[in-house]
Write a structure and sequence with these properties.
With about 300 residues, the chain is an alpha/beta fold. It folds into 2 domains: about 230 residues, Rossmann fold; about 45 residues, no CATH class. The strands form 3 sheets. The chain has a 6-stranded mixed sheet with strand order 5-4-3-6-7-10, with helices on both faces. Strands 1-2 form a two-stranded antiparallel ribbon. A two-stranded antiparallel ribbon has the order 8-9. The radius of gyration is 23 Å and the shape is elongated. The protein starts with 7 loop residues before the first helix and ends in a 7-residue tail after the last helix.
């Protein structure tokens, strides 16, 4: 393939695993995902009492024989899944220490999951944000659409401050139908503001997944001599002796990670802390398997 973030072997290994929605979805075409509306698919949902105007073909005569009352069979309506991949393209996403650049890892996740979604008949879209939501590819189920999505991903040049919070609020307001929202970011933002944005998405009944991307150096802070640390978002720098601040840094990082996890949990978001030197296939396999209904595990 012409894109360096696409892996044919990975896609072939994961191709048998479906991407399932954790919450009922709404869509325009019949598909494999549960809808909040009752319909006439093959999966039985519940009985309800007959009311005038109901389709008499759905009357359960066995239930009538047992109770002498009319009951209607209801089934789960199936529908298609719309996914939006929200990629943080702020300056900090260019960092590559012990792992690959965070933006490249984000590209690989978004591309692989988009391909799998379209391959199973669902729609994938893309939103790329820096200090504002500035690149957007609306979701589509067409295979030809993937090339546009991949080209947009490949052209991303991270820089500047993060606009993730504003982007998430925009997406929550803009998406009229329930959707699968996948956030790919190092989440270097205020956890309280992040929590508010996630709650906004939850209020609109979206299925949220967060891939929290960090380089192993950011997590471990293993430096043995003075370093100049540069803020990749505003270009300010600071020369420090790592040994003097290591414990304070690690304590602040622990507090940050605890707060982020809590905000994701409170918003019912699926949270994954991912180091950018981690093999992608086991990560995505575990992610997809965990989303399957228990009967399919």
């Amino acid at each position: 393939m012409k894109y360096d973030f696409l892996d044919n072997t990975l896609l072939s290994h994961l191709g048998a695993l479906p991407i399932e929605a954790r919450v009922p979805m709404l869509g325009n075409v019949a598909g494999k995902h549960r809808s909040p509306h009752r319909g006439s698919s093959v999966e039985f949902a519940e009985y309800r009492k007959y009311v005038p105007g109901d389709d008499t073909r759905r009357l359960d005569w066995k239930a009538f024989g047992r109770s002498d009352r009319y009951y209607i069979k209801e089934f789960e309506a199936d529908t298609n899944l719309r996914a939006y991949f929200v990629v943080d393209a702020s300056g900090s996403m260019t960092f590559a220490g012990k792992g690959e650049a965070k933006i490249q890892y984000a590209r690989r996740i978004a591309a692989a999951l988009s391909y799998l979604l379209v391959n199973q008949g669902d729609a994938a879209g893309l939103s790329v944000c820096t200090d504002k939501l500035h690149l957007e590819v609306p979701p589509s189920r067409r295979a030809a659409h993937l090339d546009r999505l991949f080209a947009t991903l490949g052209a991303v040049a991270p820089g500047g401050a993060t606009g993730l919070i504003g982007a998430l609020h925009t997406i929550a307001e803009k998406i009229s139908q329930r959707a699968f929202v996948v956030i790919l970011s190092d989440l270097f933002t205020d956890p309280e503001a992040l929590g508010d944005a996630l709650q906004h998405l939850r209020y609109r009944k979206h299925d949220i997944s967060v891939f929290h991307l960090l380089d192993p150096l950011e997590l471990g802070f293993e430096f043995d001599r003075p370093h100049r640390f540069v803020d990749l978002e505003d270009n300010t720098s600071l020369v420090v002796e790592p040994n003097l601040i290591a414990e304070e840094y690690k304590a602040a990082l622990r507090d940050f990670l605890t707060a982020v996890r809590a905000k994701c949990h409170d918003a019912a978001a699926d949270y994954q802390l991912v180091l950018t030197d981690s093999p992608l296939e086991p990560l995505l396999r575990e992610f997809l398997t965990a989303r399957l209904p228990k009967s399919k595990h």
